[in-house]
Amino acid sequence: MTADTLYSKQQNVVDFVFDENVANVFTDMIRRSVPGYENIVTMLGVFAEQYVQQNSNVYDLGCSLGAATLSMRSRLTHHNCQMYAVDNSQAMTERCQQNIGLQQGPGVTVSCDDIRDVDIQSASLSVLNFTLQFLPLTDRAKLLKNIADNTLPGGALVLSEKIKFENPAEAQLNETLHLAFKKANGYSELEIAQKRSAIENVLIPETLAVHLQRLKAAGFSSAQIWFQCYSFVSIVAVK
Ligand code: GEK
After folding, report:
1. What is the mean predicted confidence (pLDDT) over 76-105?
2. pLDDT tens digits along 28-69
3. Residue 28 belongs to a domain with what CATH number?
4. Does residue 79 carry a pLDDT above 80?
5. Domain of residue 116, residue span
6. Which residue in 64, 192, 197, 210 is a FRET match for 33, CA 20 to 30 A apart?
7. Positive or negative CA dihedral for 133, 174, 38, 209?
8. Structure confidence at residue 105 (pLDDT)
């Protein structure tokens, strides 16, 4: 795994993009920046075991290097389903394709596409693992409705996001704890500050209440939080 040193030197910070440089260090970056990421990825395998149905499709939307796809594939109990891993960063999908090829398992179609354009059909499980937060606010409901409309009865969506807190004290506490987490993982004050300014116009968090209400409005019959670590949550919504 290549260490993430992207923001270790003083630089003119520009908006964050998922380019070659990020793809090269992404595994290290996300593990050291997103508390609970590895647990969530592991548990996606358990979700796959629970929700993937015969003759259905599984979607990893914003797949990056394919960690969620690999976890789900490793625990599929039905082998007559098709997996789709989609990301609009070519640097990510090239590496994702290689990673998937390194392990045995059912077929996965990896494509370099915008998740807003994916033709979702007969989904039994879809995953948005820290991806929805990068879409413009105005596009989020439409994507969730597309997923809900094309999810089979009993199928699910797992949505992981960084959330915003309305209560200033709660926001401050979670911010402090996240900062401590990043420092404990070896990021310097400079790295943390530069990454924060690179991401602030790119990753737009919303409150948990907004997420849960929008999932219900999209057509899921239930939506509940199953994991939280500081401001990082994962929600399961069932059709
Ligand atoms: C994991 N799920 O390891 N269309 C397609 N992909 C997009 C779009 C879009 N409109 N916007 C952003 N992305 C992964 C981690 S990372 C999370 C997901 C993070 C992609 C983007 O290229 C990147 O690969 C991914 O969403 C977000 O389980 O970096 O915090």
Report:
1. 93
2. 999 999 999 999 999 999 999 999 999 999 999 999 999 999
3. 3.40.50.150
4. no
5. 1-239
6. 210
7. negative
8. 83
Average confidence score pLDDT of the chain: 96
Ligand 1 near 135 CB (within 6 A): yes
Q: What is the 3-state secondary structure (H, E, C) of 87-138?
A: ECCHHHHHHHHHHHHCCCCCCEEEEECCHHHCCCCCEEEEEEECCHHHCCHH
> How far is Cα 196 from Cα 38, in angstroms, rounded to an integer?
22
Supply the residue whose CA is at minimum distance from atom 4 of ligand 1. 114
Q: Are 119 and 126 in contact (CB under 8 A)?
A: no
Most informative mutation of 31, 41, 43, 64 for ligand 1 (most atoms within 8 A of CB): 64
Question: What crossing angle do the helices spanning 37-51 and 67-74 adopt, rounded to 10°?
Answer: 40
What is the share, in percent, of the chain residues with pLDDT greater than 70? 100
Residue 153 phi, psi dihedral angles, 5° rounding: -55, 135
Query: Does the structure show a pLDDT above 90 at 107?
Result: no
Number of independent structural domains in the chain: 1
Query: Cα(17) to centroid of ligand 1, in Å?
Result: 10
Ligand 1 close to Cβ of residue 158 (< 6 A) = no
